[in-house]
Every structure is written in structure tokens, then in C-alpha cells.
Design brief:
This protein is an all-alpha fold and 110 residues long. The chain has four helices and no strands. Helix 2 runs antiparallel to helix 3 and helix 3 packs antiparallel against helix 4. The longest helix has 31 residues. 6% of the residues are buried.
Length: 110
């Protein structure tokens, strides 16, 4: 079963991986721009990070180079740090005003 699954993944072309990556990135971007809940906005940011990671791994595999996989490790590190900071910020903001609607926090921009 695993060998059959591995051979299926190896038969996919670079363009199919890039289409998947671009679809995930567009879903994340649209979700980030249309949603007003801070948690959903951070999840959409994580989705965009993962889309970029898929593209880097696909290019690395296509060119038989490990630089794409190495760069993905840095992306995952940045995503983990961003998630930790985002969680702390969401908890702090929720305690302050009991809402996570981004429109309610617009006065911070001024």
C-alpha cells in the first residue's frame, strides 16, 4: 500500500504541485482579506506559509536539490514563532476587550 502511494506521488508533475500550492495560497489570501476574526486571519497566514513550503519542496525535488527542503525548515521555524506570538497576542487582546473582531481594534492603527 505504501509503495503504491509513493509511486503515485512520484508520478505527479511539477505543474500539479504548483497548481496545488497556488490554490492554497489564494485560499489563504482571500481568507485573510475577507475575514475579520483574528484567529482565522492567523490560520490563513499559516495556510499561505504551507503553500509556499509546498512550492519550495516541489522545485527542490524537480531540480534534485535540497535547498528547497532546507528553506522549508526555515519557513516552519518562522511559522512556529509567528504562531506563538499570535496566540499570546490573541489572548492579550481578548482579555482586554472580550472580542477578536479586527474592526474593533482599528484604533490601534491611529
Amino acid at each position: 500500500m505504501m509503495l503504491q502511494l509513493a509511486s503515485t506521488f512520484s508520478q505527479l508533475s511539477l505543474s500539479q504541485y504548483l497548481v496545488l500550492s497556488s490554490l492554497l495560497f489564494v485560499i489563504g489570501l482571500v481568507g485573510f482579506l475577507t475575514r475579520r476574526n483574528l484567529i482565522v486571519m492567523f490560520l490563513c497566514t499559516e495556510l499561505m506559509f504551507q503553500a509556499a513550503a509546498i512550492a519550495f519542496v516541489a522545485f527542490g525535488r524537480y531540480w534534485f536539490d535540497f535547498s528547497g527542503q532546507v528553506f522549508v525548515i526555515f519557513i516552519l521555524t518562522v511559522a512556529a514563532a509567528e504562531a506563538a506570538l499570535a496566540l499570546a497576542l490573541v489572548v492579550l487582546l481578548y482579555r482586554r476587550r472580550s472580542t477578536l473582531n479586527a474592526d474593533d481594534w482599528m484604533e490601534l492603527c491611529e
